[in-house]
């Protein structure tokens, strides 16, 4: 028995569209603060800049902006991908989220109350949520989350993300497991 049989909802159990949040569905003013422990110097990175960033020893990363529902609500929605989500939601296809954020309840609330879509809580994966206990970098964690979706029995998968590394690892997972995953590099 696949676990998605236990996930109740009026949506497909085989077709799913899975979205990243930041710079895929919404552009916010949230920044990652990078501080050097020795010098105390700090600078900020956008999520796009962070995708290419390589942390150095002695640096502390602060993701507090990504814990604010108000910052998310103030963000600019990316119409192209939201329109695809809306069309498929109305057609009864499952919608999932795989994001680097760490608060699944906040994502659920934002999607339901602010964006207007009730996404089943079990289909929201915040890969940095401590309860997930995922290991590796963000791209590896997203790959592990995608594997969970495959294990649930989803066979028609579309994945939207703004980071080419995430896309590459999902493509590799699809190849390794001989599963068809349509990947879309989100651009805004």
Explain what this protein looks like in three dimensions.
This protein starts with 14 loop residues before the first strand and ends with a strand. It has a five-stranded parallel beta sheet, sandwiched between helices. The protein has a three-stranded antiparallel beta sheet with strand order 4-3-5. It has 188 residues and is of the alpha/beta class. Helix content is 33%, strand content 22%.
Q: What is the gist of this entry?
A:
The protein contains 6 helices and 10 strands.
Question: Nearest-angstrom radius of gyration?
Answer: 17 Å
Helical content class: 25-40%
Strand content: 15-25%
Strand order of the largest sheet: 8-7-1-9-10
Number of strands: 10
| Helix count from the secondary structure assignment | 6
Given the helix and strand composition, which structural class is it? alpha/beta
How many strands, what sense, and barrel or not for the largest sheet? Answer: 5 strands, parallel
Distance between the termini: 39 Å
The 3D shape can be described as globular
Q: What is the residue-mean pLDDT, rounded to a whole number?
A: 90
Q: List unreliable stretches of 5+ residues.
A: 1-6
What is the string of SSEs from the N terminus onward? EEEEHEHEHEHEHEHE
Annotate the secondary structure layout.
Elements: E1 15-19, E2 26-27, E3 32-36, E4 42-45, H1 47-51, E5 59-62, H2 69-73, E6 76-77, H3 79-90, E7 94-99, H4 104-115, E8 124-126, H5 138-151, E9 156-161, H6 164-177, E10 181-185
Parallel strand pairs: 1-7, 1-9, 7-8, 9-10
Antiparallel strand pairs: 2-6, 3-4, 3-5
């Amino acid at each position: 028995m696949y676990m998605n049989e236990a996930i109740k909802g009026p949506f497909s159990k085989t077709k799913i569209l899975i979205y990243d949040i930041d710079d895929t569905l919404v552009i916010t003013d949230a920044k990652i603060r990078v501080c050097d422990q020795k010098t105390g110097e700090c600078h900020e990175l956008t999520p796009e800049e962070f995708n290419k960033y390589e942390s150095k020893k002695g640096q502390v990363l602060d993701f507090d902006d990504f814990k604010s529902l108000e910052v998310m609500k103030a963000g600019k929605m990316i119409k192209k991908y939201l329109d695809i989500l809306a069309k498929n939601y109305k057609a009864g296809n499952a919608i999932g989220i795989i994001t680097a954020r760490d608060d699944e309840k906040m994502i659920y609330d934002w999607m339901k109350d602010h964006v207007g879509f009730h996404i089943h809580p079990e289909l929201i994966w915040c890969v940095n949520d401590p309860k997930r206990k995922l290991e590796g970098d963000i791209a590896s964690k997203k790959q592990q989350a995608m594997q969970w979706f495959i294990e649930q029995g989803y066979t028609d998968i579309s994945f939207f993300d703004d980071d080419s590394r995430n896309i590459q690892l999902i493509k590799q997972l699809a190849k390794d497991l001989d599963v068809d995953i349509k990947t879309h590099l989100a651009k805004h």
